């Protein structure tokens, strides 16, 4: 559904309905409680609300799911951010002794924003995205997901669409949540390849031999590069874009290609010639290690991380199921099994799901009368489950449910291991 169908002026009217009947509070609380991992884990978690007119309220914390629900329904945040688990309740941070209020744990998080690729994408810039440049997010998820699982041994990764122009990753394993700032920095640096600001021409420099992690990453990039960069982004077409590519090559190859490109206009043949010349140069140098073609592929396609988001334990990150005020889109979990077909433009807006919710369903009227006479909170919870299932939000909550079920199975497995060990003693 195009964003044009969403009117930001309607947000104040839509948000109360969304928080009252559609936001998946039950699953949300289950996620952030981590199976009751410790007594005050949820209570000591920081939430930050951005209210209407950009009023920013930090250090919110809640004792129960019900308390969180009531406060969100009362304050109607335009944006919700999640922070760390602290040593004390964040809402009481001003009352504790100076220096004792400290961030103890938080998920290891990654933030990938399309604006960081503006120097290498030709289709869009700034906050705009399209189906062509969205391929960069698919590549980023594939590379980082594999590395976090296989190189670091993490299992519980929640990938979330930001609602506008990027993706977030929440690594929720117990070991990831306990990482120090130094360890988080080490992971982020390991995963960072594209380095240097606007003044740096070659942002990727490979050494010989190529590290196994980079080889794995290249195998992902190579699957997408020609269709994405050569065909869709047309990086070897206009003089301006060709010059940017040639600037990444040594003078002898650059000179040869400049002559060749005068007659050959086919972008794919231009790329093939570039690769052939790099290969020829590599074979003529005894030491080897000339990976100019691979460096170009990585510079144009490798994930660009906001390293500071990953390093800090107390850094805030936008919550899943928050609404993006400008696009109206819900920040939804991404099903990696359907990653290649995930379309950010099909992610439901708050206006769409509220409209779907209001469509009459005659078969439910009688059931509602009976249920509403039962315990109010239970009836409310049941009604909310039924409500979101009537909307386009349902399939994304299902992805979240599967993620939570996998974590729950893992907790049970750990508990069984501990009990078996105790029996042995």
Automatic annotation (TrEMBL):
Organism domain of life: Eukaryota
Gene Ontology terms describing biological process: DNA replication initiation; DNA replication, synthesis of primer
Keyword Transport in record: no
One Pfam family of this chain: DNA_primase_S
GO CC, one annotated term: alpha DNA polymerase:primase complex
The EC number(s) this enzyme carries: 2.7.7.-
InterPro entries cross-referenced by the UniProt entry: DNA_primase_S (IPR002755), DNA_primase_ssu_euk/arc (IPR014052)
Keywords: DNA replication, DNA-directed RNA polymerase, Metal-binding, Nucleotidyltransferase, Primosome, Transcription, Transferase, Zinc
Segments forming a coiled coil: none
Catalytic activity: ssDNA + n NTP = ssDNA/pppN(pN)n-1 hybrid + (n-1) diphosphate
Entries under SUPFAM superfamilies matching the protein: Prim-pol domain
Compositionally biased tracts (Basic and acidic residues): 370-384
Entry's family note: Belongs to the eukaryotic-type primase small subunit family.
NCBIfam families found in the cross-reference section: primase_sml
Protein known as: DNA primase
């Amino acid at each position: 559904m195009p964003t044009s169908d969403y009117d930001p002026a309607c947000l104040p009217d839509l948000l109360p309905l969304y928080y009252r009947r559609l936001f998946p509070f039950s699953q949300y609380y289950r996620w952030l409680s981590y199976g009751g991992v410790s007594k005050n884990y949820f209570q000591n978690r920081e939430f930050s609300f951005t209210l209407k007119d950009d009023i920013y309220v930090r250090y919110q914390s809640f004792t129960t799911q019900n308390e969180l629900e009531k406060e969100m329904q009362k304050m109607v945040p335009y944006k919700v951010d999640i922070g760390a688990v602290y040593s004390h309740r964040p809402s009481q941070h001003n009352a504790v002794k100076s220096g004792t209020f400290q961030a103890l744990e938080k998920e290891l998080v990654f933030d990938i924003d399309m604006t960081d690729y503006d120097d290498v994408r030709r289709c869009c810039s700034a906050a705009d995205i399209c189906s062509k440049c969205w391929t960069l997010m698919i590549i980023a998820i594939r590379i980082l997901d594999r590395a976090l699982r296989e190189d670091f041994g993490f299992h519980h990764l929640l990938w979330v669409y930001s609602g506008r122009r990027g993706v977030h990753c929440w690594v929720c394993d117990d070991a990831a949540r306990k990482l120090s700032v130094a360890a988080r920095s080490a992971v982020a640096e390991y995963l960072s390849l594209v380095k240097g600001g606007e003044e740096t021409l070659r942002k990727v420099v490979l050494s010989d031999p190529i590290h196994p992690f980079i080889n794995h990453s290249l195998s992902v990039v190579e699957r997408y590069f020609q269709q994405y960069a050569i065909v869709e982004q047309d990086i070897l077409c206009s003089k301006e874009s060709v010059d940017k590519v040639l600037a990444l090559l040594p003078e002898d190859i650059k000179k040869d290609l400049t002559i060749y490109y005068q007659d050959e206009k086919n972008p794919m043949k231009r790329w093939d010639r570039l690769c052939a010349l790099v290969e020829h140069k590599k074979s003529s140098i005894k030491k080897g290690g000339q990976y100019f073609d691979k460096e170009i592929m990585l510079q144009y396609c490798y994930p660009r991380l906001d390293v500071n988001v990953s390093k800090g334990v107390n850094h805030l990150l936008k919550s899943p199921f928050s609404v993006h005020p400008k696009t109206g889109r819900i920040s939804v979990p991404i099903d990696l099994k359907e990653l290649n077909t995930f379309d950010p433009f099909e992610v439901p807006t708050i206006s769409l799901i509220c409209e779907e919710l209001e469509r009459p369903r005659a078969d439910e009227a009688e059931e509602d009368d009976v249920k509403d006479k039962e315990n109010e909170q239970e009836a409310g919870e049941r009604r909310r489950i039924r409500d979101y299932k009537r909307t386009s939000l349902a399939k994304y909550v299902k992805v979240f449910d599967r993620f939570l079920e996998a974590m729950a199975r893992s907790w049970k497995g750990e508990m069984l291991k501990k009990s078996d060990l105790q029996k042995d003693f």
